[in-house]
Specification:
The protein is mostly helical and 305 residues long. The longest helix has 29 residues, at 64-92. Residues 144-153 have low confidence and may be disordered. The protein has one domain (2-303). Helix content is 81%, strand content 0%. α2 packs across α9 and α5 crosses α7. It has 13 helices and no strands.
Length: 305
């Protein structure tokens, strides 16, 4: 039961981290890209310190091919995927953005069918449909939930942009997972994986921000001690603990399918957290859509076992 408990704890950490990021953005008025920059900087620092303490090195000794796959995975999943996730959160709010991010297994299945020759079974198609319907029910709910920088009820055009960002976050996470399979097949440890992926994501953000002229404004907006402390705390819970617990879950659960299913329950934890932290009303529509989407994710994951 250690693995199963770790999976639920990881899902809780991701939900708590999401609400912490939402609170930071609301109170500090930080751009989504700047938040992602701060998150990856704090995460890279903590993982590097962990690598030094546990293995005496902050950079793993891995083959060049493995390093390249892991770096690409970090850019796709953390630079682009998490960047889109913070963009969705700034428009749609925490709950909807987290649910859209959780659709990553759907895009992983689609990617596996297109590039790995793994066509989905009829039950997996039904599960994908359940996820999409559940997400659609929640995303189109008109109940205000306090988006970070936008009015409580965004306009249709703005809401559509938020959905695009949310779908992009799921695609980015799925692409990062698919690419990392090539590296994980070489027996890379979870710590070594993080020691490459997170710094690579940080480098990707710095390069993109520098190319678009946003690096200096973002760095200036982050140069506040209290803000840096808040970002470090959110990164520790949502990134550092979440990743470690997820890897423990995958290694110690009855099966990877069980672990992945439990890890996909973050949107369920986000509902009571939103009620408690932000006084968000939990409607029957939001609850039903979230449960339907999570049930679809469970069916999709178990179908791969």
């Amino acid at each position: 039961m250690i693995g199963e408990a770790a999976a639920l704890a990881a899902a809780m950490c991701w939900a708590v981290g999401a609400h912490l990021w939402g609170r930071i953005a609301r109170t500090a008025n930080v751009a989504p890209g700047a938040l992602n920059l701060g998150k990856c900087f704090a995460g890279a620092l903590v993982f590097a310190l962990t690598g030094l303490v546990m293995g005496g090195r902050a950079i793993p000794d891995l083959p060049a091919r493995t390093m390249a796959w892991l770096a690409l995975s970090g850019v796709l999943g953390l630079t682009l995927g998490d960047g889109a996730y913070f963009g969705a959160m700034s428009i749609l709010g925490v709950r909807r953005a987290l649910l859209l991010l959780s659709t990553a297994p759907v895009f992983t299945a689609v990617g596996g069918a297109l590039w790995l020759g793994e066509p989905p079974s009829p039950s997996e198609v039904a599960s994908i449909a359940a996820v999409l319907v559940g997400v659609g029910v929640v995303v189109h709910e008109q109940q205000p939930e306090g988006a970070l920088h936008q009015p409580a009820v965004p306009s249709k055009g703005t809401a559509l942009l938020g959905v695009v960002f949310g779908i992009g976050s799921g695609v980015g996470q799925a692409a990062g997972s698919l690419v990392s399979r090539a590296a994980m097949a070489d027996g890379v440890s979870p710590l070594d994986t993080a020691l490459v992926r997170v710094p690579a994501a940080l480098a990707g953000i710095v390069l993109l921000a520098g190319a678009t002229g946003r690096l200096v404004p973002w760095a200036r907006s982050l140069a506040r001690p209290r803000l840096l402390a808040a970002i470090s705390g959110a990164a520790f819970v949502g990134t550092y603990l979440g990743i470690w617990l997820a890897q423990l879950a995958i290694g110690r659960s009855r099966s990877t399918a069980v672990a992945s299913t439990l890890l996909a329950t973050s949107p369920i934890f986000a509902l009571p957290l939103g009620r408690w932290l932000n006084a968000e009303r939990i409607t029957l529509r939001a609850l039903g859509g979230t449960l339907l989407a999570c049930a679809g994710l469970a069916g999709l994951t178990l179908g791969k076992s």
